[in-house]
Amino acid sequence: MLDFWYKKLPKHPKDHKDFWRTKLIAHTLLLASCYFVILTLLNIFYFASYDIALFDTVGLCITLAVYSWFTKTADVDMAAWAVAIIIVSLIMLFVISTSGRAHTLFWATLIPPLTFFLVGRTWGSVLSGIAFCICAYLTYKQQQQVITIGLGSLFNVIEVSVAHIIIFRFYEKTRFSAYQHLQARNIEIQHLAETDKLTGLYNRQKFDQTLSLLLADNKDATTSNSLLICDIDHFKNINDTYGHLAGDNILSTFATVLKHKMPTNSLIARWGGEEFTVILSNTTLTDAAALAHELKKYISEQKFEDSFFTISIGLTELHCDDTVKSSLERADSALFTAKSNGRNTVYYSDNNFKIVAYPSAS
After folding, report:
1. Is 194 a residue of the active site?
2. What are phi and psi of 304, to 5 degrees?
3. Which one of the listed residues 159, 274, 275, 317 is annotated catalytic?
4. 3-state SS string over 120-154?
């Protein structure tokens, strides 16, 4: 039954603006049809209120007609207005026909949550305002009258209460779904904002932020942290000789090598162009230099894109009084020295801020 009811309705992805309105229209039409069937049977066989039963039957026919039209046209805006008008009209006709007695006024409380969602705040306010004005008038007319609470009143209160629970369960589902979607989108946006598209590594902005946080923590810490800057030698010649696509493949391949060769707790980023930075947490300058040398040696012995290439590395140890600028300047100065002294080498800035070649560098 449910599959048959929903399968012909418009299909929208969850992030589409009409996804939840379509759901609400479908749910409302289904619930309204069920309510009208139940109320028709109750009014015929239990209350013997044939005039109200006829009213419920008309409501059922109109609801089914709107459903049939909606499945053919998929016009969400018009369907939303049609459902809103049907809801308001039928509820208010029912309330007026009973003069607001037997607690039928409770049915008007369904109008705001449905109309606000279907036709927006402005028209939802207008339709709700009109309905409540009519209810206020009917209440005024009942002043000083003795109100009898019978079985009809009980049924009205129960039915409206159930309808409210269903509506607000639906609202909570839409809110939770929207929150989950927004949370996923925020994570995706955050990832895009801090990731280099070509290599999949962190970008310079993320690197600078992480380095800044690490230096702030480093002021009171006793652990050693080191910073590397790697540069692919003669990268312009690679682009000129093999083309920019080959150059992009070299960059991506080198990024993959970095992720495999550096410790798992390292933060690796593409700093710009053919330069890459690595923060080695809990790593002394001596250990960092050894890692850098092994990386340089491995790269020089591998063949990538039918060619060989080499890298130069500059590194430094982070100090408690460092800033992002001062630490990067020392590592960059060591890199500049490495490139000036023949490339394919590793240089580091020692504790006396002197730039020295790693002993085993070739």
Report:
1. no
2. -125, 130
3. 274
4. HHHHHHHHHHHHHHHHHHHHHHCCCCCCCCCHHHH
